[in-house]
Design the sequence.
């Protein structure tokens, strides 16, 4: 059965082009131009994923997200024409799974939809990219045939990021996944570890291809370079 | 058979409810048992009116054919045959179709009345013959259908169906008067509230049979929309004296502040005993300079004449001068009387006495003896004493020595009181010498024979000196009293003056100048380290001569020229300076507050604009990016059709973006005053056609109705095209998809008008001003809506025209673009 996507945006042009693209990839697409219609639709036919514009006439995108989250944990990707981070952060705090700033490339959106809808890798075994191989079973890493030594914390970070391949992992999620409920570690610490991972695995650590940062928000692992 | 009675419902405009009232009256009579029929009622498709007919008997209309169309008219013969008691006949001014018995409906009505049938009818004020040309002047619409006034005047009853212009406009906006399709440029122009106010007043005047009196005024009043109801009229009472200039200048300032019209009037007192040498030449010239009207009227009662003149000119304020010179004192009675008579008018009394400081000076400062006065006293003593000596010596035989002493004493006291104590002393010594020499034996020597004569001379000397001192003292006291009275007055005036502008300080400087009798009093302000005169009373003098300085604050000083001031004076001026300081401070604070507010408003506007613009720019960009990136996808093979669809979408958004960027740049250019219109003569329909080529109608149907015979208009074609394109785009964006956008054009009384009529949500009254001012409301959900319109409004102003928002009858926005008529080449 094909998966269903609900796209909520007040711009008909955007709705049209997203529908064509998503349908071309085999998704069932429903569109809605305002928040209240969208909420009604979600209640009646829960979709597999919602793509939600933050700027809607009437009920704002944030309000839609809030009431969505009160009853459902359907994944939500936020679209926002507002450049500023506060809205993005608010949306992520409200439980959005990912976001894209307008204008966006359709490729990016499709990738994010796929990442979210693709199942979690329940038990990570081995992952290979053109530049490195990670064997999670034996905790062995190699780059260009050479063995790479990684610390325990680095392995933990890699586990969380690779398991959510393509998806945004917020700093808070990452901290929780790595350090559990222990004493809170700060983001600076985290950044430190990620930098070291990049130095060990990325071909160009200053311009990371695999371990991307969403500044101020979190990190994202791309298994294949984009 | 007696003639029927006529009852007329007079309305100021279509839609006031005449027909409804006529039907109402018909029902009332029918309920009282009268036999009432509807002769002819025009419902104009108004549901309420149609419902009001109910089941009243209606005489069938008669059809006439004219140029292939059928016209239905009242069937006069049928009504006459039916012979009801009362016939209801709408629209008295109607012109019948060719072929009917009478040319005009009022002639039909006459026949009905002749036949003994009572008629109830309706007519609008603009259809009355006598006011026809006035109405045309007011509204710019030629009325072809008219009724002779006499016909209506003959009516037993005329009832004015009155309604406020606002209520009528509301009714119009709700579509209760005409359906939207029927509204064209001239009709919308007709229903402007300025016009309606004028028509309403005209109706009332006509009813009171006073049109003739006011006709001239109506004709003068071309600029109705501005001046009809709100303009203040300032009546200035000039006296033909030198105080007129100050008075008129003050009045002109008041007038320009409130945008009032200025009327100067001089009332010649025909009852005055002696003819005053009034010279009104200056007042006349000044009035003309201030673009006011000057009039001279003659009456024995100045106050009554003034007030009734003010009333007849519809004045709202009377300005009179009050000064301390003698002529003005005579007028104080006039001022009081005017105040009493002009209960409903504002009366301003303005102090104008400062123009003649020397006169006041002389009256005030009696006790302080100038060198000149002392000299005059000495000369008087030198003349009077020999004269008295000579006169007394001629009659020496008949006068006693004591009489001689008393006469001399009188002279000494006289000159002492004029010239002061020094003069008194000199005169007393001289007088005692003269007495001794000429009148005390032995004569013609300074010796004294008898001891009691010596005592008398010494006593005289002492007495004269003592009396001089007393007289001097008395004069000084009274001078001081005068002076403190004057000071108290100045302080009181200063305290009463809430100086909101620098102008208000000028009279205070004037009075200071008058009291201290100096040529110049000035307020200096330090700007960039230099002291420059901010306000000046009196002549301009070399700053070096301004010898008395009073600090007000760090940047202001009060200076006086040629003043010799004692301590008391300094105290007084010090208090005055404090007052000035307070007023400057409050002005500065008000100024700062206003500035801060302006900055805050600009900031809010900027933020709002930035928000709206960034949204508006990102939206098309997002669509373009989404479409282009779709085309670039490699995992999907698009069909040609799909590819075309993406490209069409990109193309459309690029146009949208271009339009927005153009508007933004134009808004910037407008704000920076960088747009200069290049005026050419063009045809309105060409402008509309080329403007429509550039816009995206969003699939809306455009219903364009422009007359073919419009003369060319003088305008900048590029700007005018942008205006039309912006307005029509806006209408297309917000009008419902299934409703056409109507574009009507036509000549109006003042020029041309193009109406763009949509059925969208409209723009609420309070947002309209924001759009006109600059850009748009900050929290407008349909962001970007205002930018195009505000640019259009800005361009219209540059083109010498006006962009006006109106409600579309039945809902929606009507934008009226108005261009003034210019002479075609």
Sequence:
């Amino acid at each position: 059965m094909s998966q269903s996507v609900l796209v909520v945006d007040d711009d008909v042009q955007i709705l049209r082009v997203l529908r064509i693209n998503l349908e071309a990839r085999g998704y069932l697409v429903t569109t809605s131009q305002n928040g209240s219609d969208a909420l009604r639709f979600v209640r009646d036919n829960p979709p597999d994923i919602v793509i939600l514009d933050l700027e809607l006439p009437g009920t704002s995108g944030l309000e839609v997200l809030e009431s969505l989250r009160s009853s459902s944990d359907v994944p939500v990707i936020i679209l926002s024409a507002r450049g500023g981070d506060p809205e993005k952060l608010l949306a992520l705090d409200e439980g959005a799974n990912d976001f894209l700033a307008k204008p966006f490339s359709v490729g990016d959106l499709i990738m994010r939809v796929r990442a979210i809808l693709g199942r979690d890798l329940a038990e990570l075994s081995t992952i290979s990219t053109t530049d490195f191989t990670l064997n999670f079973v034996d905790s062995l890493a190699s780059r260009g045939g050479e063995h790479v030594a990684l610390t325990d914390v680095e392995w933990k970070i890699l586990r969380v990021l690779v398991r959510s391949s393509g998806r945004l992992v917020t700093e808070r999620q990452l901290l929780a996944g790595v350090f559990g409920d222990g004493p809170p570690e700060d983001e600076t610490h985290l950044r430190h570890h990620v930098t070291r991972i990049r130095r060990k695995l990325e071909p160009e650590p200053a311009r990371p291809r695999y371990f991307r940062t969403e500044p101020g928000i979190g990190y994202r692992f791309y298994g294949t370079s984009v | 058979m007696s003639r029927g009675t006529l009852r007329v419902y007079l309305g100021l405009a279509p839609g006031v409810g005449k027909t409804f009232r006529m039907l109402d009256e018909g029902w009332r009579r029918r309920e009282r048992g009268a036999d009432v029929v509807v002769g002819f009622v025009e419902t104009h498709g108004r549901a309420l009116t149609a419902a009001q007919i109910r089941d009243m008997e209606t005489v069938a209309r008669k059809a006439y054919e004219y140029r292939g169309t059928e016209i239905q008219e009242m069937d006069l013969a049928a009504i006459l045959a039916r012979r009801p008691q009362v016939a209801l006949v709408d629209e008295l001014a109607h012109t019948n179709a060719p072929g009917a018995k009478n040319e005009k409906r009022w002639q039909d009505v006459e026949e009905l009345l002749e036949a003994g049938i009572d008629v109830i009818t309706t007519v609008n004020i603009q259809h009355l013959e006598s006011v026809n040309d006035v109405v045309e002047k007011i509204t710019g619409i030629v009325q072809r259908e008219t009724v002779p006034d006499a016909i209506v005047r003959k009516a037993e009853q005329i009832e004015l169906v009155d309604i406020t212009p606002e209520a009528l406009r509301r009714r119009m906006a709700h579509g209760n008067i005409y359906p939207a399709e029927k509204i064209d440029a001239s009709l919308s122009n007709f229903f402007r509230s300025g016009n309606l106010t004028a028509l309403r007043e005209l109706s009332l005047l006509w009813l009171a049979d006073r049109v003739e009196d006011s006709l001239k005024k109506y004709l003068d009043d071309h600029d109705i929309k501005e001046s009809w109801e709100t303009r203040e009229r300032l009546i200035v009472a000039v006296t033909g004296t030198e105080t007129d200039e100050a008075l008129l200048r003050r009045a002109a300032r008041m007038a320009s502040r409130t945008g009032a019209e200025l009327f100067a009037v001089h009332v010649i007192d025909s009852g005055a005993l002696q003819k005053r040498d009034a010279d009104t030449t200056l007042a006349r010239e000044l009035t003309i300079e201030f673009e006011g009207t000057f009039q001279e009227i003659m009456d024995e009662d100045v106050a009554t004449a003034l007030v009734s003149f003010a009333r007849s000119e519809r004045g709202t304020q009377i300005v009179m001068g009050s000064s301390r010179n003698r002529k003005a004192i005579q007028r104080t009675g006039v001022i009081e009387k005017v105040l009493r008579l002009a209960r409903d008018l504002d009366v301003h009394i303005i102090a104008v006495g400062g123009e003649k400081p020397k006169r006041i000076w002389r009256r005030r400062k009696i006790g302080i003896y100038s060198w000149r006065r002392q000299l005059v006293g000495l000369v008087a003593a030198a003349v009077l004493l020999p004269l008295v000596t000579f006169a007394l010596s001629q009659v020496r035989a008949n006068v006693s020595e004591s009489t001689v002493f008393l006469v001399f004493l009188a002279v000494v006291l006289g000159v002492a009181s004029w010239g002061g104590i020094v003069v008194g002393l000199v005169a007393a010594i001289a007088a005692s010498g003269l007495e001794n020499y000429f009148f005390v034996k032995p004569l013609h020597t300074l010796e004294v024979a008898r001891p009691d004569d010596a005592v008398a001379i010494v006593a005289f000397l002492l007495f004269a000196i003592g009396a001089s001192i007393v007289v001097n003292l008395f004069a000084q006291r009274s001078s001081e009293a005068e002076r403190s009275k004057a000071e108290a007055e100045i302080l009181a005036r200063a305290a009463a003056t809430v100086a909101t502008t620098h102008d208000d300080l000028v009279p205070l400087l004037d009075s200071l100048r008058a009291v201290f009798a100096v040529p110049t009093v000035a307020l200096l302000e330090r700007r960039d380290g230099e002291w420059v005169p901010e306000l000046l009373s009196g002549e301009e003098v070399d700053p070096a001569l301004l010898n008395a300085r009073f600090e007000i604050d760090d940047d202001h000083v009060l200076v006086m020229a040629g003043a010799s001031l004692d301590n008391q004076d300094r105290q007084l001026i010090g208090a005055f300076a404090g007052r000035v300081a307070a007023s400057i401070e409050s002005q500065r604070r008000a100024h700062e507050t206003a500035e801060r507010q302006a900055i805050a408003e600009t900031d809010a506007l900027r933020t709002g604009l930035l928000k709206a613009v960034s949204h508006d720019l990102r939206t098309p960009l997002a669509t373009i990016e989404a479409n282009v990136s779709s085309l670039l996808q490699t995992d999907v093979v698009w069909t040609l059709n799909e590819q075309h669809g993406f490209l069409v979408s990109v193309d459309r958004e690029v146009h949208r973006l271009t339009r927005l960027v153009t508007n933004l740049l134009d808004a910037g250019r407008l704000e920076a005053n960088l747009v200069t219109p290049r005026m050419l003569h063009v045809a309105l329909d060409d402008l509309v056609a080329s403007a429509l080529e550039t816009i995206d109608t969003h699939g809306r149907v455009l219903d364009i109705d422009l007359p073919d015979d419009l003369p060319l208009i003088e305008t900048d074609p590029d700007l005018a095209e942008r205006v039309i394109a912006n307005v029509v785009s806006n209408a297309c964006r917000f009008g419902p998809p299934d409703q056409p956008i109507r574009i009507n054009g036509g000549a109006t009384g003042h020029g041309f008008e193009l109406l763009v009529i949509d059925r969208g949500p409209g723009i609420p009254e309070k947002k309209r001003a924001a759009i006109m001012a600059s850009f748009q409301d900050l929290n407008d959900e349909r962001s970007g809506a205002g930018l195009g319109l505000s640019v259009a409004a800005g361009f219209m102003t540059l083109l010498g025209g006006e962009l006006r928002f109106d409600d579309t009858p039945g809902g929606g926005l009507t934008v009226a673009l108005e261009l003034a008529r210019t002479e075609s080449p």
In short: Residues 524 and 532 of chain B are 5 Å apart (CA to CA). Chain B touches chain A at residues 614-615, 618-619, 621-627, 629-630, 632-633, 635-636, 638, 642, 645-646, 649, 652-653, 781-782 (CB under 8 Å). The domain at 675-820 of chain B is CATH 3.30.565.10 (Heat Shock Protein 90). The first strand of chain B starts at residue 6 and ends at 11.
